[in-house]
Design a protein that fits this description.
This protein has 329 residues and is an all-alpha fold. The chain is 64% helix and 0% strand. The protein contains ten helices and no strands. The longest helix is centred in the N-terminal third of the chain and has 49 residues, at 12-60. The chain starts with 11 loop residues before the first helix and ends with a helix.
């Protein structure tokens, strides 16, 4: 089948890809405009409040120079961004205790990367890069294996829905119902319910903050503005950190499961619209050969195939097909 190029010599999938790039650029610009419109007033308000506190501090402490205060603020902010506090530690526990380190390791290999605690030494930075190179593929393999096994009961559930509703609704509607039920269960058990637990355990978080944390973490965005267990004098902090690590791994697994079910529905897998079909990739001779019926195997098998073409295969005559004992009669 020959694919006709669009005007200008571009393939249909290439045109759709350019359209996707244009839409993506507009999507980024729209996001920037909306974030700027929403956050700018809040930022200006907080800057004014901070300046008021600064002026009041200088009035009450006239012996402190403005330049010295600014220098101190810069140092404190820089240290705070690295997870270090001038008052020992905001969590009243070292950043690199075993519980905290386990939590940090999980955020590295799951690509969440909150960024509130980072390696300070050169050796730690080098090890972090090596650990991430090994840990990220290992995590992907683990999550893929878990999702593959979880697809067994979800597929059985889909078959159950088909057996009950197949005579009433088309397959696409049943698959949408299946996806909706799985997604509702995942959102309820791994987003809404944990958000309530975090809101109860974290004194400064409301429910929206907690749900925001769950969503940002399980989508691996990991902004790092909300970190569980960092409130001063948090009870059972090591156990809390370990439990949060387990929650992140389980949540990522079931989030991947939901996405897998989504992409298994052909009508919803829009990504295939932007992929090059086999009949569009005809520039590589090897690909052309592989796409040609009867061309099987790598290049070194071509000689064997060509040799077979030169062999003349004789078609048996009716006489040859006669049984041997019948010929002698």
């Amino acid at each position: 089948m020959r694919v006709h190029a669009a005007p200008g010599g571009l393939r249909p999938s290439t045109l759709r890809l350019f359209g996707l790039l244009l839409f993506y650029a507009l999507f980024l610009l729209a996001g920037a405009a909306i974030f700027s419109a929403i956050e700018s007033p809040e930022e200006e308000f907080r800057i004014k409040e901070l300046r008021k506190h600064r002026s009041k501090f200088l009035e009450l402490n006239s012996c402190v120079r403005d330049e010295d205060l600014e220098s101190l603020i810069v140092e404190v902010v820089t240290a705070s961004n690295r997870g270090v506090s001038a008052m020992g530690n905001v969590t009243s526990e070292p950043n690199w205790s075993f519980g905290q380190s386990l939590f940090f390791s999980s955020t590295v290999v799951t690509t969440i990367g909150y960024g509130h605690v980072t390696p300070l030494s050169k050796g730690g930075k080098i090890f972090c890069m090596i650990y991430a190179m090994l840990g990220i593929p290992l995590t992907l393999v683990l999550l893929t294996a878990l999702v593959e096994r979880l697809m067994v009961p979800t597929t059985l559930f889909l078959q159950f829905l088909n057996s009950r509703l197949g005579h009433l609704y088309p397959p696409f509607n049943i698959r949408l119902l299946h996806l909706s039920l799985i997604a509702t269960l995942v959102v309820t058990l791994l987003y809404l319910l944990p958000a309530g637990i975090f809101a109860y355990l974290e004194p400064e978080w409301d429910y929206l903050d907690s749900f925001y944390y769950c969503f940002i973490s399980l989508t691996t965005v990991g902004l790092g503005d909300y970190i569980p267990g960092d409130f001063p004098n948090q009870p059972y902090r090591p156990f809390y950190k370990v439990a949060t690590t387990g929650y992140l791994l389980i949540g990522l697994t079931f989030t991947m499961l939901t996405l897998t079910i989504f992409y298994d529905i052909p009508q919803l897998n829009f990504g295939v619209l932007f992929l090059m079909r086999s009949d569009e990739t005809t520039t590589d001779p090897e690909k052309v050969r592989l796409q040609t019926p009867g061309s099987i195997g790598p290049k070194y098998t071509q000689q064997f195939n060509e040799h077979l073409k030169g062999v003349k295969i004789e078609t048996p005559t009716p006489e040859d097909q006669t049984p041997v004992h019948a010929r002698h009669q």
